[in-house]
Amino acid sequence: MATTTTNLVVPGATAAPADHHRRPTTEPIVIGHRGASGYRPEHTLASYRLAIRLGASYVEPDLVSTRDGVLVARHENEISGTTDVAQHPEFADRETTKVIDGRSVTGWFTEDFTLAELKTLRAKERLPLVRPDNTRYNGMFEVPTLDEVLSLVRHEERRAGRRIGVYPETKHPSHFDSLGLSLEQPLVAALRRHGLDRAGSGVFIQSFETANLRALAGVTRVPLVQLIDASGAPYDFERAGDPRTYRDLATPQGLAWVATYADAIGANKDLVLPRDPATRATGEPSDLVPDAHDAGLLVHAWTLRDENQFMATNFRRGADPNAKGDAYAEAMAFLDAGVDGIFSDHPDTTVTALEDWLARVDQSA
């Protein structure tokens, strides 16, 4: 198991333009994406705990709300793919179809369950055909609350003797606002209960929408992260008739606007290392990282995974889409591109690459 002596980035610190031959003033961070979701069912305490023990600097809980206003960690508010809810006959009548961010979705939704009801469910692997080994843990773990995640992190900090950050994402904030179940107020309240609503606390808050981040900028001192996808647009833009897309936010002008309320961007990795349309291999880095740094924004890239199907073709090994590719080389490529952090389903792979990359940069300094 890899270990790390990496110092955490000071949240909200301003990054200098990338210099691939100079050691950065703050070391890049490794964010356990939904925990260590390559090894345990995502968004379970077991997944977060393993990510920390594999050396992750931060763990990432995606947050949705229950009917009684409690924040819980699920990738989506529709939970049939990540829990055994469909096997509970007492909840059969809760299956329904809703429009979420303009798209029709059928299933079971956290906002239709109390916390007590959700606690009767058990997590399962979301990608059983990709990660069959993870299915051995199906039925073992509860759906955790945000408070439980924060308490786990504090416990693991004491055990490990190092600070561990938390990187929550507010999921579908416009949808939950429309239900009277705002995510932002209970999130800030939870951070305050745990002594984390302050600068330098080791917390980032992220969102694919912009309006809730702009509102959060006025009520919390923790750094905020604007997520930027490779296609589409923030849903709050779509609702308001704003024609801007995520690609517009990734321009120098868009990044300057993001910097008025956020401290970092969380960028789809294809925006950092674009793929050739014909070969699907990565080439030279785009200008996104230096442009973001010029705007005073950190850049965290998402998401690195060990399986071939999630990689550009130049990092794949063999033809099996579920076989392990060269994730180490992929992580090195993103570190060479100057990113300040990497989201990873397999944190140990990325931590090992980071340690070797820092050693190489030190030797060349």
SSE layout and pairing:
Layout: E1 29-32, H1 45-53, E2 58-59, E3 62-65, E4 71-73, E5 96-100, E6 103-107, H2 115-118, H3 146-160, E7 165-166, E8 169-170, H4 173-178, H5 184-193, E9 205-207, H6 211-216, E10 224-228, H7 235-240, H8 246-249, H9 252-258, E11 264-268, H10 269-272, H11 288-294, E12 298-304, H12 327-336, E13 341-344, H13 347-364
Parallel strand pairs: 1-2, 1-13, 2-7, 3-8, 9-10, 10-11, 11-12, 12-13
Antiparallel strand pairs: 3-4, 5-6
Count of DSSP strands: 13
% residues in beta strands: 5-15%
Return the string of H and E elements: EHEEEEEHHEEHHEHEHHHEHHEHEH
Q: How far is it from the N-terminal to the C-terminal residue, by CA?
A: 28 Å
**Class computed from helices, strands and strand pairing:** alpha/beta
Largest sheet: 8 strands, parallel
Q: Please, what is the average pLDDT?
A: 93
Q: Percent helix among the residues?
A: 25-40%
Radius of gyration, whole Å: 20 Å
Tertiary shape: globular
Annotation field: number of helices: 13
| Low-pLDDT stretches | 1-24
Please, what is the oligomeric state?
single chain
Strand order of the largest sheet: 7-2-1-13-12-11-10-9
Can you give a write-up of this model?
The structure is a single chain. By secondary structure, the chain is an alpha/beta fold. It is 29% helix and 14% strand. The strands form 3 sheets. An 8-stranded parallel beta sheet has the order 7-2-1-13-12-11-10-9. Strands 4-3-8 form a 3-stranded mixed beta sheet, covered by helices on one side. A hairpin with a 2-residue loop joins β5 and β6. The chain is globular. The relative contact order is 0.15.
